Known about the structure:
Elements lengths: L5 H18 L2 H18 L2 H18 L2 H17 L3 H17 L6 H14 L3 H18 L5 H15 L4 H18 L2 H17 L3 H14 L7 H12 L2
Amino acid sequence: MYLGHLDRALALSEQGVALARRLDHPLSLALTLFQNGLVHFERGELDRMAERIGELVRLAEELGFPFWLGVGSFFRGIARVESGAGEAGVAQMQQAVVDLAGIGNGLGASAFLLVLATALWKVGRHDEALGMLDLGFAQAEMTSQHYVDGELHRLRGEILLDKDEDAAGDAESQFVQALEVARRQEARLFELRAATRLASLWQRQGKHDQARALLAPVYAWFTEGFDTRDLTDAKLLLDELR
């Protein structure tokens, strides 16, 4: 998925769920339900994400999987934020992070903090969101899990720019770092997000040719997933830059 193969990721995650059902192996089913829900989340298909996470929570409650119950609660909080119940959703996500930490789970913690920072930003709590990103970077160092470092930089740039339009220089620096990390990791989806945000900033500054020269080849690399949120956003921006 993060390598940019969005349709293949969805197909494989659906196959994983089907296989886990055939094997009648609940723990494998929990894992594949989460993976499929995550793919839908990254594609911007939040209704489908909510369906899968709802099934995950029911399974975790029935069989007593505390880790997956915490994960499911976190993603249900995301759904609440997206549906307009922002503060309630953020509170649920924060509690889920505490619950997961309480059972000793550090796996993917920086990614959870990234998503929580996004939610805090969406409800206007910019400083808390930036603090959460700092925790995300610290957690990445502690666990040597750096796969969302580029996204942490990208989101920091977005929040800085939203908080203060005069912070364009700092935001641009974050977007550039996000691009560099994504390219080094060959994380095409993250590269597209960073390139889109940087191109959008340059568009606002009147640098249309520079913006298109940056974004066009990144978008052109993709061969699938054109109905997903990130590719749709990039295409709309490229059309504006013609």
